[in-house]
Amino acid sequence: MNSSSIISLLTGHMSLKNIAFGALIGNLFLICTGPAAKVVQYEVGDTMVRDVDSTDAHRLRTVDQQYSYRLATAGAIQPSGWIKNQMESDLKHGLIGSFDQISNTVAYDLFVAQNRLNDRKYDDRKEWWSGEHEGYWKDAIIRMAFLTGNQQYIDSARAWVEEIISNTDPSGYIGIYADGDTPHTRYNFTGPNGELWTQSRIMIALAAYYEFTGDNRVLDHLKKAAELTMNRYRNKNPFATGTDGGTGHGVGYFEILEWLYRTTGDLAYAKFAKKLYGDLDRADTNIEDLAPKRLGTKNRYFADHGAHVAEGFFIPFWLQAQYPSSGYDQYAANAMYKLNYATTPSGVMRADENVRKRKGTANESYEYCGVTELVNPFNIMIGLSGDMRLADRTERAVFNAAQGARFADLSAVSYLTEDNRIGIDPKKKLGRHTYDSNHYAASCCALNSGRLMPYYVQGMWMDHTDRDGVAAVMFGPSSYSTMIRESSVTIEEQTAYPFEDNIDFVFTVERPTSFTFTIRKPFGADIAAISGVEDARIEAADRTISFTKTWKTGDSVGVRFDFDIEQTADVDFTGDRQYFINRGPLLYALPFPFTKRKLKEHQASGFYQWDVTCTDRKGWDYQLPENASFEFLASKEMAGAPFPFDRPVLQIRTKLRDSDGKDVEVILVPMGNTVLRRVTFPRTP
To answer: Rounded to two decimals, what is the model's pTM?
Structure first.
């Protein structure tokens, strides 16, 4: 259905201004946007674009000039329904709430003790390892505690933050390393360097705490800590001393630089980000996929560690917004081209640690860290460009890959997962493929499982940068509170999305206020009906519809999406085609029965590594007939179920063909409801 036919479903005054679009036209890729967004042009080429020297610093633009939408502050969006239930369960029963009992690596209070040296191993791990773990864990706990109102963990969060800022020395340093002027102390590295990485992990947690509480002391400490690091690395390359993972993970520091710039408007953070990106390009690291020397050409696919790519994916997009017409647009376009090549049907980048220049298919492995670490970069990129296709991708990854890589109660996650999965070898890649509460290879994926939904929540709503409206970007049960024209506005999103097609947006407004309310049109869906906008001015774009009127308390907008059941080809690097089935953001899979057996317990915590074994492989070789028909089944009894990923509330009935050529009726369920499954099927006449 095109924009005009959507509009024909509506009544009232309409204006079709500012219709943007997305298409590949020659070598120009146009990002589709909503009415408040800018059209960003990325030129796709094969040659290196020059870096811009410091004389171009005057070309920096203000925050509002750079962003199409303003990201919401933590706490302005409150989850409800199944999203809140899942986070509450994760805290109370899952591995995140108990991780200090599962592993010691989050319990050393390194950002208080500041006693690591970078030439030593601790717990037989690199010195930065537990700093990473502690940052991940506290970030997850802080966000989930405030989003769910869990007072026990809110108290823990406050205690942690007070300890960190009260033990900060006069220099303002927030990090894990010991002070000193000798090698191996902070900022004095001759080998592995986890300085930027570990700082970024705890600083992004502190940033969330500041947004939840408004405690300006925390913001002051963050600014002072960043100023110290920027000064110490003003004339030094932090990527030049080591080729270990910690050094490369330093790309995570761009995340706190972007947050500080967006929060304070101080250009110093943006200028330092440009300097740091040049450092990455000049360094000889083992993680170079995001450096201009790799992004200057699109025909060299991502090869290195996938989590690093995810952590810093937004960097060239942000620099392009800061320095328009500088050449960063080519890096951004080529980064997206490479990510698209590596993306699996469930919406994530394939990476069994490294991407290995492989095409993303349903049979390729992906890392849980790579799922979580791409959510916030995409949030930032949506804010920059208004490109709502990134929201489509986030929904697909969060609702399918991420949910399908965890036990429903989050007692264990799969470090490495595939869309198509029939067996799990506990000995493969140090147990990374198993469901575990703390993989021996590394704790990062288990800890990142607790950060996933809070970051999804933070990207659900955004303000128009002209502060004249709000946008519902990603969907799910929630509410959003903001200020528009000095009037407080709260919009409650009443829905069980993606487990139902209806959304009711209910408005509470301090006083009648005129503003624009924008909603995303997901996954190319038709909109079957919209109510409550008869007196609104309506503006339609390819991916958004906006309604402008004077809103008052009690107003509501009802939206019903009309999703088709779609078959999409998954083509591997040999050209072999299989097909997956989706309806809206959800992929549907043929589930297989399994048994679980405990392999080991972690520190008498009651959390385990599991051996998962398929008990019946019947159907693994089924094929999809070309003339297959599908029947969508939604359980009325389980509509609005509190934990819809525990037990399927949606199904698709169809017939697949067995090896004898007989049609067999099967029930497909959302991928997120499965552990062992088949997502793609070869097609047969």
So the answer is: 0.91
- Under the banding of pLDDT at 50, 70 and 90, the label for residue 41 is very low
Which residues, 6+ apart, have CB-to-CB distance to 225 below 8 Å?
168, 172, 173, 174, 175, 199, 203
d(CA 2, CA 6): 6
- Which of 313, 382, 526, 537 has its CA nearest to residue 34? 382
Tokens of 371: 């799922």
pLDDT digits (tens, 9 = 90+) for 473-525: 999 999 999 999 999 999 999 999 999 999 999 999 999 999 999 999 998 68
Q: Per-residue DSSP letters for 278-307?
A: HHHHHS--S--TTSHHHHT-SSS---SBHH
| pLDDT at position 298 | 85
d(CA 289, CA 304): 6
> Where on the phi/psi map is residue 584: left (φ > 0), alpha (ψ -120 to 50), or beta?
left
Distance between CA atoms of 94 and 351, rounded to whole angstroms? 25
Spatial distance between the Cα atoms of 227 and 432, rounded to a whole number of angstroms: 38
Q: What value does the mean pLDDT take over residues 240-255?
A: 90
Determine contact, residues 68/422, Cβ cutoff 8 Å: no
The DSSP code for 399 is I
Secondary structure of residue 494 in the 3-state scheme: strand
Residue 61: alpha-carbon gap to chain centroid: 26
DSSP state, 658?
A: -
Share of the chain above pLDDT 90, in %: 83
Helix spans in 118-266 (H): 129-148, 151-166, 195-213, 216-232, 245-248, 253-264
Residue 674, Cα to own-chain centre: how many angstroms?
Answer: 21
Spatial distance between the Cα atoms of 218 and 229, rounded to a whole number of angstroms: 17
Angle at 528 between CA 525 and CA 531, to 5 degrees: 125
Is a pLDDT exceeding 80 seen at residue 40?
no
Q: Are 661 and 685 in contact, with CB atoms under 8 Å apart?
A: no
